[in-house]
Design a protein that fits this description.
The chain has a domain of 151 residues: Rossmann fold (3-Layer(aba) Sandwich), CATH 3.40.50.11740. The strands form two sheets. A six-stranded mixed sheet has the order 4-3-5-6-11-10, with helices on both faces. Strands 2-1-7-8-9 form a five-stranded parallel sheet. Strand 3, helix 5 and strand 4 form a beta-alpha-beta unit. By secondary structure, the chain is α/β, with parallel strands linked by helices. The chain has 16 helices and eleven strands.
Length: 361
């Protein structure tokens, strides 16, 4: 693998940007799925290097942003219990629920701990046998293997005070939902490289063929992203609709077989609710029957917690690429990182957060 600086080299970036201008003959709308790619685009001003014919829109690729509001409320209900140690990645702590966030619950005295791995939470469970330790298992295919391994090891080691609050989602069904919408304006996709590192990109091939939409697996640095745009535009101008891999240094077509094996051992595919979008069929992961003993929703009986999105937040339209963050009337006013109405403003990968940090003025 080359040094990351080589993918931020000014001359290389300018050269690929010029190549994009030379091949662009028609207007095209491209969506990057990953929130990390969104932040790179806005931070480095990559959208401003592109010809006016190309419009970049931002997709539902931030795992924090698409975690449904009711999952946050369920997490808060669990974390507030005196017999619980609630563990989470740091980026979930300030995501607003319907009334408060996990940070507010922690300030009220709840035992909420930021961890860097689900295995950290498993170790906490071992050291605190009198407590129920719950890990907030969110994310796309990228984080699923680690969360699956935690449940697998808990079962193997007989750790019965550990559980997962699962809110896992899958990328391909979300792409299909966007493409099948009557409001869709996306003509090509940049697929998230880290997701494809796990799952490969075979699942994208029938989608590209069915909807006649090129999908390019893309990395996260400036050159990576512009190279992905170049490959996508080249296909569109040539009337080709294929899946191409511009991130070959990390991604293989078949993905990571070992990672997929542990996911299939612990999880099964199910319909899943996405924040701001609603239920997408067969778009998420739930624990298999053999792992029900580690399902926090079953342990704490949380299925009756249902929550509606705030009407003033247009995150649903932002996550589907229908509107950009600055088109929201609340952007930078009622909705700011210190007072977010929706997850895309508070998440470090959220599109609204990126616009607030880099494009607010």
């Amino acid at each position: 693998m080359k040094f990351v600086d080589e993918y931020r080299n000014k001359e290389s970036v300018q050269k690929i940007a010029q190549a994009i201008k030379e091949i662009t003959k028609h207007p095209w709308t491209i969506m990057e799925i990953c929130g990390g790619q969104t932040h790179s685009i806005i931070r480095f001003g990559l959208d401003e290097l592109l010809p006016k014919e190309i419009t970049l829109v931002h997709g539902p690729g931030c795992p924090v942003c698409v975690t449904p509001l009711e999952s946050i409320d369920r997490a808060i209900a669990i974390a507030a219990r005196e017999d619980v140690i609630f563990c989470s990645f740091g980026d979930m702590i300030r995501v607003p629920g319907s009334q408060k966030d996990l940070l507010g619950v922690k300030a009220e005295g709840a035992d909420i701990r930021i961890v860097y791995s689900p295995m950290d939470a498993l170790e906490i469970a071992k050291k605190n046998p009198s407590k129920k330790v719950v890990f907030f298992a969110i994310g796309f295919e990228t984080t699923a293997p680690g969360n699956a391994m935690a449940a697998y090891m808990a079962k193997k080691q007989g750790i019965d005070n550990f559980s997962l609050l699962v809110s896992h989602v899958l990328v391909p069904p979300a792409i299909e939902t966007i493409l099948s919408s009557k409001q869709n304006k996306v003509q090509g996709f940049l697929a998230a490289g880290h997701v494809c590192t796990i799952m490969g990109y075979e699942e994208y091939e029938p989608i590209a063929k069915k909807y006649k939409t090129p999908i390019v697996v893309t990395g996260f640095e400036p050159f990576d992203i512009l190279q992905g745009v170049h490959m996508c535009i080249k296909q569109l101008e040539e009337n080709r609709y294929e899946v191409e891999n511009s991130y070959a240094r990390c991604v293989h077509r078949e993905g990571n077989n070992k990672a997929m094996e542990i996911i299939k051992e612990v999880f099964e595919v199910s319909s899943r609710k996405w924040r701001g979008i609603g239920i997408i069929p067969q778009s998420g992961l739930i624990l298999r029957k053999d792992y029900f003993q580690f399902d926090a929703e079953r342990i704490f009986d949380l299925e009756n917690i249902k929550t509606c999105e705030p009407e003033e937040c247009i995150s649903a339209l932002v996550l589907q690429g229908i509107k950009n963050p600055h088109e929201c009337a609340a952007f930078g006013k009622q909705c700011r990182p210190d007072h977010p109405l929706g997850a895309p403003m508070v998440s470090s990968e959220g599109a609204c957060n990126a616009y607030y940090r880099y494009k607010r003025r």
